[in-house]
Design a protein that fits this description.
single chain, about 290 residues, alpha/beta, four-stranded antiparallel beta sheet, 18 strands, elongated
Length: about 290
């Protein structure tokens, strides 16, 4: 049978050729930009999409990435005009997409160098080295640690809702797959629930618990106390190593101290995803974080 070669070239066209004899199998598609990198096909073998990026500008038109419908033989989307995070740039006046786009076969997500990433405060991300990766090139990292004012930090929080991916850990993961998180400022749980296109949750085995009841206890004994110490916050649990609510026989989930430094303010259980595959959980076979 026919083996078709899809070949995007420097002359700005995509050609379709018979591998056996080199004959054209259908009309070429004109992109109008020189193509240097190799295009990528959607990996399921069924979806007729082809993604390829331009390696140079064309006149007054900036380089960009094209998504091509191979059945209709036309460009259905294009993006990346003058991205200010492009590695090849001349004061923001030039960008290029020489590298090949990649598809995440598990989710169908298109991954491009230059994706905007953000994260919640997490010891796990730093201990595993994930933070160092996502805060470096070729990604555009929303870095709140570089902010000079509270207003700048708040702006990063708002921009995070539009990020391509948000990285975090969880305070606990149950055997049923629920994610349990308790937050003070709550920018972390807010981004988990809504906003970023993708949420990637990285957890050590120490975060695994049987059920929500054990998750609640874990936060009150193993997560919140060491985090208050790490953050230099004076709370009762920072001094005793456990939430004061545990002095009662059967404390409620939300019970605790009521000082200004309390970091347990909002409680979130993620039980089922409405948008399938938006949240991905990676469990590592070692202990990380609190």
């Amino acid at each position: 049978g026919l083996v078709e070669v899809i070949y995007a070239t420097m002359d700005g066209n995509i050609y379709f050729l018979d591998l056996e004899n080199g004959d054209a199998t259908r009309d070429s598609i004109k992109l109008g930009f020189p193509i240097k990198g190799t295009g990528s096909l959607y990996p399921d073998g069924k979806t007729p999409l082809y993604v390829v990026g331009a390696g140079d500008d064309m006149g007054d038109k900036a380089a960009r990435t094209f998504i091509v419908d191979l059945i209709r033989g036309e460009v259905i989307d294009e993006y990346g005009f003058d991205d200010d995070f492009a590695l090849r740039t001349d004061n923001g006046k030039f960008c290029a997409f020489d590298s090949s786009p990649l598809f995440d076969t598990a989710t169908g997500t298109l991954i491009q160098p230059g994706d905007t990433l953000s994260c919640g405060g997490s010891v796990t991300l730093k201990e595993t080295g994930v933070y160092d990766i996502i805060s470096s090139e070729p990604y555009r990292f929303l870095d709140r640690s570089a902010c000079q004012t509270r207003e700048e930090v708040e702006e990063i929080y708002r921009k995070t809702f539009c990020a391509d991916a948000f990285f975090t850990s969880a305070n606990a993961v149950t055997e049923n797959g629920e994610l349990y998180n308790v937050d003070g400022n709550s920018n972390r749980v807010a981004a988990i629930l809504y906003g970023p296109k993708s949420v990637i949750c990285v957890c050590g085995v120490n975060k695994l618990v049987k059920n929500i009841e054990e998750a609640i206890t874990r936060v009150k004994t193993k997560a919140a106390p060491p985090n208050t110490v790490r953050l230099g916050i004076e709370t009762p649990c920072a001094k005793t190593g456990a939430c004061i609510s545990l002095q009662k026989e059967d404390p409620d989930m939300c019970e605790g101290c009521h000082g200004d430094g309390r970091i347990c303010c909002n409680y979130v259980v993620c039980a089922q995803q409405r948008h399938v595959n938006r949240i991905k959980v990676i469990i590592i076979g070692e202990e990380y974080g609190y």
